[in-house]
């Protein structure tokens, strides 16, 4: 895909913070994250849905609506937004709603773990871009063309017990290496200092 979000700075935290035990998404399924240790902690607020993710939901509307058990027209709140300092795939974004019953994002699987959009990608072969960018890269985040860990960029702690910070996590990979397929698909990295395009494989965990 050609449209990507430009990154000109990457923080050290991306290389110092461990990634997920079993890679993105799968590492979440057994994580006891959140204050209540019930998991799926980062799905309890709703999320910014990139326009491109929204468009893919519309293309796969019947499947998505069946998965979330409600019409897509009810799944979003507020207006489309975008700022001069922020880029989204497709140019703008809209906030997903949370459910009244349990407070989770409307795309979270009701009565079970995980995100329905992730399941549709894994089970139905739908493009990964149907998953909002921020959900694909968590606990990485970006702002003003800078990529870093969530706490560095947004000054909000990574969710308690997130697989990447849990004591049981045995991976030796950094977040940057563990998430590299997502990063490569979403971002165009052209560091300010060097003006050169960065080949992600050229980074390693010792950096
Ligand atoms: S908080 Fe971490 S482990 Fe829990 S669902 Fe989110 S990314 Fe996965
Ligand atoms: S879209 Fe999926 S991964 Fe993102 S917050 Fe909602 S349920 Fe969680």
Low-pLDDT stretches are: 201-207
The main sheet comes to: 3 strands, mixed
Structural class determined from secondary elements: alpha/beta
Strand-residue proportion: 5-15%
Report the C-alpha radius of gyration, rounded: 17 Å
How many alpha or pi helices? 8
Shape type: globular
Short description:
This protein is an alpha/beta fold.
Describe the structure.
The protein is of the alpha/beta class and 207 residues long. It has one domain. Helix content is 25%, strand content 14%. The chain is built from eight helices and eight strands. The strands form three sheets. The protein has a three-stranded mixed sheet. A three-stranded antiparallel sheet has the order 3-5-4. 36% of the residues are buried. The structure holds iron/sulfur cluster (2 copies). One iron/sulfur cluster (SF4) is lined by residues 43, 47, 96, 105, 107-108, 115, 117, 132, 135.
Question: Which keywords apply here?
Answer:
three-stranded mixed sheet; 8 helices; binds iron/sulfur cluster; 207 residues; alpha/beta; disordered C terminus; 8 strands
Layout of strands and helices, then pairs:
Blueprint: E1 5-7, E2 9-10, H1 13-16, E3 48-50, H2 51-59, H3 61-68, E4 76-81, E5 93-96, H4 116-124, H5 133-137, E6 140-143, E7 146-149, H6 150-154, H7 175-178, H8 180-186, E8 187-189
Parallel strand pairs: 1-8, 2-7
Antiparallel strand pairs: 3-5, 4-5, 6-7
The site of one iron/sulfur cluster (SF4) has 10 residues, from loops.
